Amino acid sequence: MISTFKLINKFMKEQQIIIGIDVSKLTLDACVWDGQAFHSRRIDNSLKSIASLLKQLQKKFKDHPINIAIENTGYYNWPFYEAVKLLQANVYVLNPLHLHKSLGMVRGKNDQLDAQRIAKYLMLHIHDLKPTVLSRTQIRHLQALVAQRKRLMDIRTKLMVPAKELQLLGNKTITEQVMKSTKQAVKSIDAQIAVVEKQIDSLIASDEDMQQQFRYITSVQGVGKVLAWAMIIKTNEFKSINNPRKLACFAGVVPFEYSSGTSIHRRPKVSYMADKTLKKLLHLAAMRAIQLNGDMRNYYLRKVEEGKNKMSALNAVRNKIVARICSCVNNNKFYVPDLNLS
Fold first, then answer.
1. How far apart are CA 292 and CA 274, in angstroms?
2. What's the mean pLDDT in 310-331?
3. Which band of pLDDT confidence, cut at 50, 70 and 90, is reported for residue 280?
4. 224 compared with 6, residue with greater pLDDT
5. What is the DSSP string of 180-207?
6. In whole angstroms, what is the distance from residue 55 CA to residue 143 CA?
7. In 6, 109, 160, 296, which residue has its Cα 20 to 30 A from 48's Cα atom?
8. What is the mean pLDDT of residues 91-120?
9. 75: which DSSP letter?
10. Burial of 6 (C-beta count, 10 Å sphere; 0-12/13-18/19+)
């Protein structure tokens, strides 16, 4: 492990500016390594305040490369993403889980200290990291709309399941009252879901790049609009991830070996550290694909006949779907079924 002292000397020689940013709902803590010392500053988490800070940094360090690391905190990062467009800098958006596991055993926590830890993490790993391709504003709008639709769908499910279970009570009056109330609420939610879906369709239709990717993705058998939305968002229009193997790993559909020495040998299995939403949608797409007449169904049946476990065969179909989506988008073409799929 390289010591902090050696890291500091390294960046003094390279004259690189390192900035670690910790984001919360209301404030943003920045820790700047200027080549001699760490300097911390807290500002409001607003576009105006962040833009002002970044302009000051650009002016002060105009002759030095600027590298900024920020933890991915979802919506709270959006003002920063808009403001950083004004700054010529390398931006690294870090996975919170990856960051926290890399810190090892630490004591104490506050926003200022977290910002410094993020800056030191970047100093240590900068040569192994690639700058993040920040998503366009349109993609963030799509993300917000899809998230709203999911919240409405979750509420709908939470209303319907308990209402159906009340039938087990045997009290017809109470059951009818609850079901009537639930149906009214669900009807209202369904109307709101329809509005959000129409807004999503309009947003995609208004953006040529998104519309074309959407059409390529949905041309793959079994893939519906919800999975297509998720693919566009999760891969940042396939700018952040366009390799099928990496995308399959991200979605948790690639089995990994688990062995050590001569005593630990477990069968390969998918990682729990996966994007659960994408994994679920891929599973639904695979289930649909094997029910339709086509190459995916033929491939699944062939694997089962060869003695493969049905879940393993289904997971193989999920991998095929990911590979075909990437192929269509990367090559700008629609999917053509291959009846000889192997």
1. 27
2. 93
3. very high
4. 224
5. HHHHHHHHHHHHHHHHHHHHHHHHHHT-
6. 28
7. 109
8. 85
9. G
10. exposed
Among residues 47, 56, 55, 58, the alpha carbon closest in space to that of 80 is found at 47
Phi, psi of 153 (to 5 degrees): -65, -40
pLDDT digits (tens, 9 = 90+) for 208-235: 999 999 999 999 999 999 999 999 999 9
What is the amino acid identity at position 113? L
Q: Which two tokens stand for residue 149?
A: 């639709």
Of 309, 314, 284, residue with least CA distance to 299: 314
Other CB atoms within 10 Å distance of the CB of residue 111: 16
pLDDT digits (tens, 9 = 90+) for 233-244: 999 999 999 999
- Whether 158 shows a pLDDT value over 90: the answer reads no
Can you read off the two tokens belonging to residue 167?
């039938």
User: Strand, helix or coil at 39?
Assistant: strand
CA distance 36 to 64: 14
Tell the residue number behind the tokens 């504003």, with chain if given. Answer: 137
Q: Give the pairing type, strands 17-23 and 255-260.
A: unpaired
Is-contact 270 253, C-beta < 8 A?
Answer: yes
What pLDDT does 196 receive? 97
Predicted confidence at residue 266, as pLDDT, reads: 58
CA-wise closest residue to 304 among 293, 294, 315: 315
Three-state DSSP state, 159:
helix
**Coil vs helix vs strand at 29:** strand
pLDDT of 259 > 90? The answer is no
Sheet containing 17-23: order of strands: 38-44, 27-33, 17-23, 66-71, 90-94
Q: Are strands 27-33 and 17-23 parallel, antiparallel or unpaired?
A: antiparallel
What is the rounded average pLDDT for all residues in the chain? 86
In this prediction, residue 1 has a pLDDT band, given cuts at 50, 70 and 90, of very low
Are the CB atoms for 225 and 211 separated by under 8 Å?
no
